[in-house]
Amino acid sequence: MGAYRLSAHTRVCATEHGAIFLDLERSAYVGIAPARARALARVVEGWPSFDGNTIAHDGCGKPCDDGQVPCDRNSATCDAGDDIAAALVSRGILVPTPSDQSPTAAAPRLLPEAQNELVPWDSMPSRHIGVGHVIAFIRALLMAVYLTRFKSFAAIVARFDRSRRRNTGEFDLERAGALLSAYHYIRTWTFARAGRCLLDSIALVEFLRIYGVHASWVVGVQLRPFSAHSWVQHERWVLNGTPAFVREYMPIIVV
């Protein structure tokens, strides 16, 4: 059991190049170097492995399944992890694990690896677009502008999570493809996607929600060099991007 855990409003991705925290309340990223990430892995409950799964702990919180001798609570590595964790606690990124509670390792929602585009860009028909689609697009875009300008990632995650919990229907690929092509053609008259992936993805999720179609909003990160990207995905299907491109990013938000 780790001595610390992620705060409720924090997400993390870990790779061989270090780790990235995302503070959802501040919509801010915090990066740490590989050595510090390894030290934190020994003291933070639910620390993710490179594949996004969480790591079991023993002793001071050191991963217990890596084939090494568990360290004790007073080891130098644990002390380093404690020092780094204390600094992150002061920023609200980590919180101490209550002594009277059992471990509740973070278990972020995972998606299968992206494999296919739902509709290739050069195959999207436009003949079915009607006035209703235009009105729905305007509603979705206005909401996306409001959310991206005035709301935190935490508020957006909560909004989409509530919507997902209410959704009990099946994802209709054919219907979603028709709606996606309508959204794409209307969007080309309003804004370009280049540099606007967050706005585009949130607007697309909102547009689909109007029609009762629910897909996942994803934010992913790279560490070297640092960059972030947002897209919309359902299972292995990417709705507003190419699988090869989004696979370059490790998801840190999936909702």
Question: How do the strands and helices of this protein lay out in sequence?
Answer:
Elements: E1 4-6, E2 10-15, E3 18-23, E4 28-32, H1 34-41, E5 57-58, E6 62-63, H2 76-90, E7 94-96, E8 116-117, H3 131-150, H4 153-166, H5 173-187, H6 197-210, E9 216-223, E10 226-234, E11 237-238, H7 243-246, E12 250-254
Parallel strand pairs: 8-11
Antiparallel strand pairs: 1-7, 2-3, 3-4, 5-6, 9-10, 9-12, 10-11
User: Average pLDDT value?
Assistant: 85
Which segments are poorly predicted (pLDDT under 50) over 5 or more consecutive residues? 56-77
Whole-number radius of gyration?
Answer: 20 Å
Number of strands: 12
The tally of helices reads 7
Secondary structure class reads alpha+beta
In oligomeric terms, what are we looking at?
Answer: single chain
Euclidean distance between termini CA atoms:
27 Å
Biggest pleated sheet: 5 strands, mixed
Helix content range:
25-40%
Note the beta-strand portion. Answer: 15-25%
Major beta sheet, strand line-up: 8-11-10-9-12
Number of domains: 2
What is the overall silhouette? elongated
Helix and strand element order? EEEEHEEHEEHHHHEEEHE
Describe this structure in words.
The chain has 255 residues and is an alpha+beta fold. The chain has two domains: 4-96; 116-254, no CATH class. Helix content is 35%, strand content 21%. It contains seven helices and twelve strands. The strands form four sheets. It has a five-stranded mixed β-sheet with strand order 8-11-10-9-12, with helices on one face. A hairpin with a 2-residue loop joins strand 9 (216-223) and strand 10 (226-234). The two termini are 27 Å apart. The relative contact order is 0.15. The model is unreliable at 56-77 (pLDDT under 50).
